[in-house]
Amino acid sequence: MDTRARDPFYNIGLWPYLAFCLGWLIWMFPAVLFFRQVGRVKGRETFPMDGPVLILANHTAALDPAWVGFAALRPCHYMASAALFRIRWLAPIITALGAFPKAKFTKDRDSMAKLNELYDRGQCIVIFPEGTRTWDGRNIPVLPGIGRLVKRLNARVVFARMPTAFLAQPRWASYPRYVPLSVEFSPPVTFEGKTEEEIVAAVNEGVRIDPELEVLDVRCFGVRLAWGLPEYLWACPHCLAEESIVVSPTHSDEISCRACESRWRIDVQARLNPLTPGLHRESVARAHDRMTDRLGPRPRFRDDAPAPILSADRARVQRMPRGGAPIIVAEGALRLNEGSLSVVGEGGVLRWEQPLREIEMVSLEVKNALFIRVAGELHQIFPEGQSTVKWGWFLHQWWILSRPEDAASLPQGL
């Protein structure tokens, strides 16, 4: 009997296998020296080393694919954001290591066809069912599509949890931290006879981690721990003044508010430690919750008429043709209203307007680039001088509110 269908070496081909070996050897050094991943893998003894398998993992860090692949000890393929393949120097590297593109938060027939082909060939495929990286360790509800996929393939599934990855490399942070990384594999499971809803519930539970976890290891440390945080905390956790948080010019682990002058020191546990009397220690996640609970999404009003939910005096919208150079669509003042996103020129001349209901996707990509998809075309939004994370959050919330009949099936994260 031909056993190659269960042999990852013969199934992926010589050159992909050599790329896997080279990548594994290169990654071994940071995995051992920086992230201390060796010896911190649970469940490897039950991990299937041949035959098709879907690894469904939580997603908090850009390096999650490398961490999962290193722990699996067998060649893996990765469903990755199509935005990564638009970076010219990166695309050939991740392709050689087994990644294939998937357009975020939309149906992608080419990606699904590739996944089906790989699974039929007996491959190991890594998928992040939350659809995007979480910002602070809190899981994003997975979409119903993962239930349909697992049921259609009658897939063998292994769940992978990385409980400390959000501390080692928070999505909002400019620099990684020196935090021990662990990977936890579940025994392989199948869902024969289960409904799509039951599969989705099992996946949500299988990738769940504790966002309030603290790693009490004296060897944990980091540098420039506050860098990047003002993009995510786009309002002061204390006084709620928008765009007021700045990193201290003399202490790169500290932030302060230009409005109320409150100050905090950020530690490697992603906690805000108050330097101003009267404040309390809390996680970045809880500070963000309080900020968003108080500031939206809800209509805002002037004395005479509804006011824009958000506005930026200078902004640019450009269309991103596939394989071509960006095309500027409009420049001017950006306005987010209850039913539309628009650009207004001098004298109030409307230069561009997009009804929220017609938007197919809202997403924050590499380096917090804000994109929307309309009629299959990507548009990038540049609100100059303001946080794209703030704009993404409000735009995403009002986009969902504009489509109440579809709210349950729309992505809950950016």
Written overview of the protein:
By secondary structure, the chain is of the alpha+beta class. The protein folds into 3 domains: 4-206, Glycerol-3-phosphate (1)-acyltransferase (3-Layer(aba) Sandwich), CATH 3.40.1130; 229-295, no CATH class; 300-409, PH-domain like (Roll), CATH 2.30.29.30. Helix content is 26%, strand content 24%. The protein is built from 11 helices and 21 strands. The chain has helices at 8-12, 14-33, 64-72, 91-96, 109-120, 145-153, 165-168, 196-206, 229-232, 284-295, 388-401; strands at residues 41-42, 53-57, 76-81, 99-102, 124-127, 157-161, 183-185, 245-247, 254-257, 263-266, 271-274, 282-283, 300-301, 306-307, 310-320, 327-336, 340-344, 350-355, 359-364, 370-374, 377-383. The strands form 4 sheets. A 7-stranded mixed beta sheet has the order 1-7-6-2-5-3-4, with helices on both faces. A hairpin with a 7-residue loop joins strand 11 and strand 12. Helix 2 (14-33) packs across helix 3 and helix 6 (145-153) packs across helix 8. The longest helix is centred in the first third of the chain and has 20 residues, at 14-33. It is globular. It starts with 7 loop residues before the first helix and ends in a 13-residue tail after the last helix. The model is unreliable at 1-5 (pLDDT under 50).
